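COURSE: Structural Biology Practicum
ASSIGNMENT: Worksheet 4, Part C
STUDENT ID: 0417
INSTRUCTIONS: Below are two proteins. For each, the amino acid sequence is given first, followed by its structure token string. Answer the questions at the end about the second protein only.

PROTEIN I
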Amino acid sequence: MTTPLRPLQHIAAAVAAALLTLPGSAPALAQDRQPFDAWLADLRVEAEAAGIRAEILDASLTGLVPIEQVVQLDRNQPEYTLTVERYLSRVAPQSRVDRGRRMLSEHSELLARISTQYGVQARFIVAFWAIESDFGRNTGGFSVVQALATLAWDPRRSSFFRAELLAALRILNEGHIAPGDMKGSWAGAMGQTQFLPSVFLRSAVDFDGDGRKDVWGTTADALASAANHLRNIGWIGDQTWGRAVLLPADFDRARASLDISLPISDWQAAGVRRADGADLPTRQLQASIVLPEEGALSPAYLVYNNYRSILRWNRSTLFALGVGSLADQIGGG
């Protein structure tokens, strides 16, 4: 999911969301806002003007109350300082690698068709699926409309979440899911792909042809939507994401930046080598050096265009490294 809502390190949101339960009302919320009922009435007028049917608004907004814990979580998102090694041990344990390989085999025909149509390698589709929702098993239990309405009413990031709420109502209006079934994270990320509503509208697809774009319960739609989104954010289907490398002792760490992109041969000439000490690939891709940790002991990575695409899905260095590492292991690398 491309979203600015998650903390820098992807695992924080997943842990926090898993710990929360859905509350019923929010009597303790601060009183310096517009009364929620008045705010909701204004929102309904805007939604009606945008073409949302009255029956959808009735089903989605009637009796709606803000969720106090959603506001609290948005304002107090926990921050975790994790090393790359510890993060990868959490998001890409051997059990997940093994399950990913089973999913790659079990859905091989479907993944082959998706990969051919959208130009995204199957192992990466499965890796995103694994990290975002544990292969569709953890998709969130919050009402997306209720959570987004809470965040849109709260003044901190009202404009952003109001747009997402209207996008969610549009999804309901188009009939892709029933209002009561639109579940997701506390921040409105939905389904097996954990798309925000705006991303759903841009990238979700009806791959099984049943007339609905169902990223919640239909694996074909979810995986194809993930691949379509990756294509939309610049994925190149005949390239990988990057690799761990060794840097020479005299390497200038100021050169470790996504703002510096050079042919692989230039990094080879500068003394950069594969993690096992072998020469770098001879293919002349543009590449950058990434050092995800502070200090001289940080692991080093040589990353390509697709690494940048992963960051457009989720702007977290650790998330990008997690997807790349997991995809490599699922694919047998």
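PROTEIN II
(use this one for the questions)
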Amino acid sequence: MSILWAVIFFGLLIFFHELGHFIFAKLVNVKVLKFSLGFGPKVLGRKIGETEYLISAIPLGGYVKPLGEEPGEELAEEDKPRAFQYQPVWKRAAIVIAGPVFNLVLAYIIFLVFLGLKLPVAIPELDSMTSTIESVMDGSPAMKAGLKEGDTVVEIDGTSVMDWNEMAGIFSKSPGKELGLRVKRGDEFINVRITPEPAEAKDETGKGTIVGRIGISKRLDAHVIQSDSIFSAPFRAIEALYGWCALTIEVVVKLFTGAVSTKQVGGPILIVDAAAKAASVGPFAYFNFIAIISINLAILNLLPIPVLDGGHLMFFTIEALRGKPLSEKALVIANKAGMAILFTLIAFVFYNDIMRIVVPWLQKSLPQ
């Protein structure tokens, strides 16, 4: 079932993204040769009018192929008026930006349904997720080690921690193991030794397991948006969409500046795992997760990296300022650089996924 939920999840995200490109291409009279849900070999396909609609073998993606999309593509004179490369900058930009915009539309629709049904939409406050201790339980390992309210854990066994979830995850995986903490207290740094107590808990499958606890807690604040009627729901949904977009941009900025740990960045394995967990909780959690990832996909796609939508928009902006496009050679070099950056990011997120999900699963599954 995990694979099924993941296929539905990715299929819905990619469908909306590519639907945006497709609709705007049609609106500005650019000929669309193919609209495929999925990559790879064709499984099913039918040509309707001038466009072939496909379902392809690899369901985790999709694409729209307009006429004349590739630089230097040879075209007959009669085809040029409807070819992508021969359109004015504003038309090409509209087609490209429509993909991320439709991902935001998907998130808006989900939030609108939630709020129309009087279900809340919560937006966590990033500052409340820091590794600062709010309270210490009496008699706990934390109290015995001398930790106090207001202390901020900055390192565990020499590894820096930047948020509460990262810190709690390390404690959870270390029952009975002594750990060395570097703690910021006011303007000073202190070092303490602490051993998380073993405690019974349930994993994501409901199976009993032993985790480590040190007896600290914190209230994770969130801005909760609610609607009291279907008439206010559309406006509150805009507020929810704006809030999540602002939070996502804040996280991206802090990732690049180092204020948020890159260990929190996840990829397809994490998303598949999280989608399955969300689906097991219920439709609200599952579609809420789809909305959040759809917003992330929209914003990340707008980063000015060649091969992403934001990279294309960057080239269009340069073309508009220069009065002519970049040379084909410059575009090829830029796209190769963009692919190198993209593959590096993919390798990084897969490494994070493997270390966060696959390795712990293997440790539990393999005989000791």
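ANSWER KEY EXCERPT:
Q1: The two ends are 29 Å apart (CA to CA).
Q2: The chain has a mean pLDDT of 84.
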